[in-house]
């Protein structure tokens, strides 16, 4: 299979609180014949907050991010569902506005060129790592590259909000009844677990001002997955990971019951199946220990 090349947008959280996400994404890329060209000058997407002040601000900031990928003639690859939702939605809006409101796009490009940046052209696409694995690498190719089948591991997908419903068009899934992560689970030998809440919000967006409500939402997702016998939750979003993993001890304290459910990033799960070690994937960096998952896999 020829190498797939992407303009890699690491985002903020994977370079800060969830460094293991960046580590594991980089680790699995060559094993899937993926070349990542890092967008070192990219900025934060705004996590959906810029538009609370100004749609123009969100569109301009992310038009610049997209233009960086366009300069390389590569698709922009994210591994954060929030980044995907925000940047992908901006790309959709601006492509529509090129036809319907060209003066708006011209206003954005005037700002970009005044700052010495390339203008937005609308010539590339914004793609999450999950879509790249399912649509570009392909499920059959992924299955063929498995070196350590995750037999017996019961995985609960947690899609969250932004990946599924921020954009008008999803390339490989349904906004309400997704199956792409479950396809990945089956390809690597794991068993998908269906449970209530896998496509709902984790509570992170309200965690800074309604912490108790945020924790209650996260607790519902965790307890539902536990009740269905999940060995772990796997998420394509580091913000969901922060709420479900890093804050899980506080959530357990609030609900008054032990939880201790490991939360894996998508590339960590894939990396285990490709034969990478827990250390190469940053699986020792989580707040909730991933050792139960590793023990089940004989690691």
UniProtKB/TrEMBL annotation:
Q: What residues does the Cysteine-rich domain cover?
A: 6-87, 156-245
- Single GO term (MF): oxidoreductase activity
Q: Which Pfam families match?
A: CCG (PF02754)
Query: Which keywords accompany this UniProt record?
Result: Oxidoreductase
Question: What name is this protein filed under?
Answer: Succinate dehydrogenase subunit C
Which lineage ranks, top first, belong to the organism behind this chain? Bacteria, Bacillati, Cyanobacteriota, Cyanophyceae, Acaryochloridales
């Amino acid at each position: 299979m020829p190498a797939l090349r992407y303009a890699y947008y690491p985002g903020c959280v994977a370079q800060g609180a969830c460094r293991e996400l960046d580590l594991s994404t980089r680790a699995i890329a060559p094993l899937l014949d993926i070349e990542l060209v890092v967008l070192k000058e990219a900025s934060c997407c705004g996590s959906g907050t810029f538009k609370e002040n100004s749609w123009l601000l969100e569109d301009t900031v992310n038009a610049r991010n997209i233009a960086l990928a366009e300069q390389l003639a590569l698709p922009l690859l994210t591994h954060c569902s929030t980044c995907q939702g925000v940047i992908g939605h901006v790309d959709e809006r601006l492509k529509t506005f090129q036809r319907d409101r060209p003066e708006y796009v011209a206003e954005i490009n005037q700002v970009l060129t005044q700052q010495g940046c390339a203008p937005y052209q609308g010539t590339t696409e914004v793609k999450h790592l999950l879509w790249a694995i399912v649509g570009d690498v392909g499920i059959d190719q992924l299955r063929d590259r498995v070196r350590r089948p995750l037999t017996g591991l019961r995985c609960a997908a947690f899609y969250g909000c932004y990946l599924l419903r921020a954009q008008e068009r999803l390339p490989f899934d349904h906004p309400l009844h997704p199956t792409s992560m479950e396809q990945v689970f089956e390809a690597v030998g794991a068993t998908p677990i269906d449970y209530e809440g896998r496509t709902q919000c984790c509570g992170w967006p309200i965690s800074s001002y309604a912490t108790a409500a945020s924790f209650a939402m996260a607790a519902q997702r965790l307890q539902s997955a536990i009740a269905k016998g999940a060995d772990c939750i796997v998420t394509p979003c580091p913000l969901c990971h922060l709420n479900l993993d890093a804050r899980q001890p506080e959530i357990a304290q609030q609900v008054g019951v032990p939880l201790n459910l490991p939360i894996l990033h998508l590339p960590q799960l894939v990396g285990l199946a490709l034969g990478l070690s827990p250390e190469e994937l940053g699986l020792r960096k989580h707040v909730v220990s991933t050792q139960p998952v590793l023990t089940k896999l004989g690691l």
